[in-house]
Write a structure and sequence with these properties.
Blueprint lengths: L1 H24 L1 H8 L7 H24 L3 H24 L20 H21 L24
């Protein structure tokens, strides 16, 4: 089981790192992908375009290393819920947009809602598996830290 969780952890790390890189390289194009959602004011779009990719990269690297893996996994779960929710709301409002997940800019083709739900739902499940079952093998931070030893010198009193 621990080998399976390792594969899931590394896959989720790769997804978040791969999603972050094009956004970091072209924050203006990422902003152009976020704007059509029509959910944020212009200043919010710009802040999102500057901060979100670095957060994705940070979480992906932590997950790959197995450091703060549980917090990283829960952040991934939360982000997947937000990403799917935003996309589905935009779709329900009749907007035909590219998700902005891995391709950025105006050249990205509109993404079918069924694909976003399937893909992001799979990512959500992957992140939940890591949060629930631990980091798997080769994590720098162990899932079992053991009991806290009693203070030296015995109990006061």
């Amino acid at each position: 089981m621990q080998a399976v969780v390792l594969v899931v952890r590394l896959a989720m790390a790769a997804v978040f790192i791969a999603a972050a890189i094009p956004k970091i390289q072209a924050p203006d194009l990422f902003a152009a992908s976020v704007h059509p959602y029509e959910m944020l004011p212009a200043w919010g779009v710009n802040i999102m375009a500057l901060i979100l990719p670095w957060l994705e990269l940070f979480i992906g690297v932590l997950m790959a290393l197995g450091v703060w893996w549980r917090a990283s996994a829960w952040w991934m779960v939360a982000m997947m819920v937000v990403f799917m929710g935003a996309f589905l709301i935009a779709t329900a409002r009749g907007l035909h947009i590219a998700c902005g997940c891995f391709e950025v800019g105006t050249n990205a083709a509109p993404t079918p809602a069924s694909w976003v739900v399937l893909r992001d739902g799979s990512f959500l499940i992957g992140a939940w598996i890591v949060a629930r079952f631990g980091p798997g093998l080769w994590a720098l931070e162990s899932a079992q830290r053991g009991p806290i030893p009693p203070p030296a010198g015995g109990a006061a009193g």
